Amino acid sequence: MPADNALTIRRFYDAFAALDGDTMAACYAEDATFDDEAFSLRGRREVGSMWKMLCGATRDKGADVWKLSYRDVQADATRGSAHWDAHYRFSSTGRIVDNHIDAAFTFTPEGLIATHRDRFDFWAWSRQALGTPGLLLGWTPMLRKKVRTTAATNLARWMTSKA
């Protein structure tokens, strides 16, 4: 019986709405990949750690404003997509962000996420999350690189602390 990949997507976002990083991580294949404007990750350990770190930061510093909704879930035997909206406090600055993300997935035959790509307007995100620096520099490769470097450093530090 083929996996219902739409159920995997719904399980993933229902867990995210509940800030349940463990369930989110369990949705990924062992050799999964994840890419967005801040992260390029390889393997369930890295991908799952990112979600656990982000969920923990939201619980610690922003649960009072956290809201996630999703819609337009579509999936077939190998691919899927969804749109999701997140309202949260960016832990590094304390600023409120409303981010709108389009997600694309591929799946293993067992119904686990093999690849996950999130796309969003980085400049719009950076204006909200970073304030004036994001407004002035959010369109530049320099700020994108800085955000990616900081995100990778934070994740590596978090993973080391949980080892």
Task: Kindly describe this structure.
With 163 residues, the protein is an alpha+beta fold. The protein has a single domain, classed as Nuclear Transport Factor 2, Chain: A (Roll). 45% of the residues lie in helices and 31% in strands. The protein contains six helices and six strands; from the N terminus they run ααββαββββααα. The protein has helices at residues 5-17, 21-26, 44-61, 122-130, 132-137, 141-161; strands spanning 28-35, 40-42, 67-75, 79-89, 96-107, 113-119. The protein has a six-stranded mixed beta sheet. A hairpin with a 3-residue loop joins strand 3 and strand 4. The longest helix has 21 residues, at 141-161. The protein is globular. The mean pLDDT is 94.
In terms of topology, how is this protein built?
Blueprint: H1 5-17, H2 21-26, E1 28-35, E2 40-42, H3 44-61, E3 67-75, E4 79-89, E5 96-107, E6 113-119, H4 122-130, H5 132-137, H6 141-161
Parallel strand pairs: 1-6
Antiparallel strand pairs: 1-2, 3-4, 4-5, 5-6
Q: In a few lines, what is going on in this structure?
A:
This protein has 163 residues and is an alpha+beta fold. It has helices spanning 5-17, 21-26, 44-61, 122-130, 132-137, 141-161, and strands at 28-35, 40-42, 67-75, 79-89, 96-107, 113-119.
